């Protein structure tokens, strides 16, 4: 089990930030593993900066996603894990989206209505759905 964080970053026009992975070509929210000695919020801010080049402010909690049936296999095939995801709401503070060229091949703003047509990473569609739902309470599983 690997604790990970993802961030549903929005901006003043209401668009959502997504990154396209280098390994699979799928789109997802920016995020990744929480490092030892790091808080979940700190990891979320760091991951968005690394993967999309943006400085963000964490503004709330989308939810906690720990479905034991959601097993992820790394694109390299070297690792299989159950995800433990904390998904946050975030607000873009500074910067323009750009990929890091290592983990992300693209980073861009999307109108929420256009996200459904994208090829998304497993799990990402659920996190995005909950992030855009407008629910006042976080999703817990």
Helices and strands in order:
Elements lengths: L1 E9 L5 E6 L5 E2 L2 E3 L6 H13 L2 E11 L5 E3 L6 E15 L9 E7 L1 H4 L8 H9 L6 E2 L1
Parallel strand pairs: 1-7, 5-9
Antiparallel strand pairs: 1-4, 2-3, 2-8, 5-7, 6-7
Would you kindly provide a written description of the structure presented here, covering whatever features stand out?
The protein has 141 residues and is α+β, with helices and mostly antiparallel strands. Helix content is 18%, strand content 41%. It is built from three helices and nine strands. The chain has helices spanning 40-52, 112-115, 124-132, and strands at 2-10, 16-21, 27-28, 31-33, 55-65, 71-73, 80-94, 104-110, 139-140. The strands form two sheets. Strands 1, 4, 5, 6, 7 and 9 form a six-stranded mixed β-sheet that branches. β6 and β7 form a beta hairpin. The longest helix is centred in the first third of the chain and has 13 residues, at 40-52. 30% of the residues are buried. The mean pLDDT is 93.
What tags apply to this protein structure?
about 140 residues, globular, 6-stranded mixed sheet, alpha+beta, single chain, 3-stranded antiparallel sheet
Could you give a quick summary of the protein structure above?
The protein has 141 residues and is of the alpha+beta class. It contains 3 helices and 9 strands.
Q: SSE order, as H and E? A: EEEEHEEEEHHE
Give the rounded overall mean pLDDT.
Answer: 93
Query: How much beta, percentage-wise?
Result: 35-45%
Uncertain stretches: none
Helix run count: 3
Number of strands: 9
Shape: globular
Gyration radius, to the nearest Å? 14 Å
SS-based class: alpha+beta
Major pleated sheet: 6 strands, mixed
């Amino acid at each position: 089990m690997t604790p990970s964080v993802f961030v549903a970053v929005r901006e003043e026009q209401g668009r959502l930030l997504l990154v396209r992975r280098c390994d699979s070509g799928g789109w997802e929210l920016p995020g990744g593993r929480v490092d030892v000695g790091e808080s979940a919020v700190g990891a979320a801010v760091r991951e968005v900066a690394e993967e999309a080049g943006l400085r963000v402010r964490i503004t709330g909690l989308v939810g906690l996603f720990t479905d034991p049936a959601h097993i992820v296999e790394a694109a390299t095939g070297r690792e299989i894990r159950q995800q433990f995801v904390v998904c946050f709401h975030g607000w873009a503070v500074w910067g323009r989206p750009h990929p890091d060229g290592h983990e992300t091949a693209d980073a861009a703003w999307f109108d929420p209505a256009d996200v459904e047509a994208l090829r998304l990473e497993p799990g990402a569609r659920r996190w995005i759905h909950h992030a855009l739902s407008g629910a006042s309470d976080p999703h817990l599983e």
